[in-house]
Backbone:
């Protein structure tokens, strides 16, 4: 979704939602649209995203003050530290929402992706609220 109203766009960016384009408009992903509607930042109807586990994790982290972005080419969410402000620091963690079982090969590949990106890796399993499990690659000399 593209937000063309500059005041609304500024408010969204200040809340860590959306990505400002070259033309000054703010582009929102489906998760961001859903969250912005739920928070009353924009008007619209909730879609089918709000019932997903991925959205529940996104909302959980945003409500705690983290800045969360979707990775466009993968199943990860990128998370920046609390208090992040535009232009100050980059994301520190990749989160993968796991629904059902996960295979060893997937974990190894996710560790490779996180290592190449120089980010921490966290798996999120959904119960009553998200359960976050951090994975660390360790080498012993």
Residues:
């Amino acid at each position: 979704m593209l937000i063309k109203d500059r005041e609304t766009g500024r408010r969204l960016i200040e809340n860590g939602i959306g990505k400002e384009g070259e033309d000054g408009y703010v582009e929102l992903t489906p998760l961001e649209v859903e969250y912005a509607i739920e928070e009353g930042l924009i008007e619209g109807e909730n879609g089918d995203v709000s019932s997903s586990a991925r959205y529940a994790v996104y909302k959980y982290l945003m409500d705690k003050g983290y800045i969360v972005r979707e990775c466009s080419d993968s199943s990860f969410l990128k998370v920046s530290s609390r208090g992040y402000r535009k232009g100050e620091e980059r994301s520190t963690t990749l989160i993968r929402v796991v629904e059902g079982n996960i295979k060893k090969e997937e974990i190894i590949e996710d560790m490779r992706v996180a290592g190449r990106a120089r980010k921490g890796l966290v798996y999120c399993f959904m119960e009553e609220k998200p359960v976050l499990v951090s994975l660390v690659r360790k080498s012993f000399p």
